[in-house]
Amino acid sequence: LLWIIGSLSSLSGLTGIPLHFLFKIPFILADLGIGCLIYRIILNQNGTKKVAVFLASLFLLNPLPILISGYQGQLDSLLIFLVLLSSYVLVSTRKITLLVVATAGLLLGISCTVKLVPFGLLPIFLLYLFRSEKLMKKSLVQKSLLLFLFTLLTFLPLILEFIPYLSVWNAIVEHVFQYKTWWSLWGVSLLLRKLNEIWFSSSGWFSEIIAVSKNQTLSVVLVLLISYIVVFLKKWSLTKSILFVFMTEYAISSFLAPQYLIWILPFFILEYSKSGKFLYSYIAYSILTFLAASTIYLFWQDETIFQYLGNLLKITDIAGFGFN
Fold first, then answer.
1. What single string gives the DSSP state of each residue in 82-128?
2. Distance CA 268, CA 253 (A)
3. Which helix (H) or strand (E) is 192 found in, with range?
4. Confidence (pTM)
5. pLDDT tens digits for range 117-150
């Protein structure tokens, strides 16, 4: 992502095109890529071209990605495109080869360099590979080697990304791996706060539960472990498993930013398009998320994102990873 920002900054300097315009282009292209993948996946599932075009258009013409990528220039579409592409590589191929595993692992790893969120999907991908009928003829040793390769190549982009910042590693740990948001504004943490205010304010055991929920790293790990167990028992498709993990992350998040709402949209379209109530659910989700996001953005000062980008470029220069 930093290379993208640096390259766009240089291009802006050469052409005079505003950086805030150029910065949105990769994420708009990622939206188009998601639409293309939805189209290809539906065709691979023996859907008609008419249905494939219709479902792809449900994402591409949805107001939420237009607002998130086209208006604010958030990077979440790029993250989701890479996750969806990684899953497509595994699911669409008739035979899972070494090259397929390596490609899918690298794509998932690159998505983790955009945000660390997809890293929580690694066990889901490994479980899919282990259970895949395409690997039924492989021995346990061969399967284990493929799983190890997938894991290694998922970690590799992250390792390469952080090597230039070893000199400021403590700051990376504090601001990246220990990043925390506000507590009790959304989801489970909001429910706990309300229960504490109404009924359990004098209960010692409930205070312990709240203390655990305030430890965001611990709460994320615990709930993800529960989601892995559910996926293991349910034996869902890879797409549905990814959707479920993202939904659990929604539930345990103490703060829900508008751009997070785009995570589940393509997986929801792919997984529930054959449901009788799909269109009703899709329309309701689209309206509610658009209203929520647009309401928040009414209070967003445009200069804020540009100041952030400028500060980010300065930080990369200080870390010795500048682009000039």
1. HHHHHHHHHHH-SS--HHHHHHHHHHHHHHHHH-SGGGGGHHHHHHH
2. 19
3. helix 187-198
4. 0.85
5. 899 999 999 999 999 988 888 888 999 999 999 9
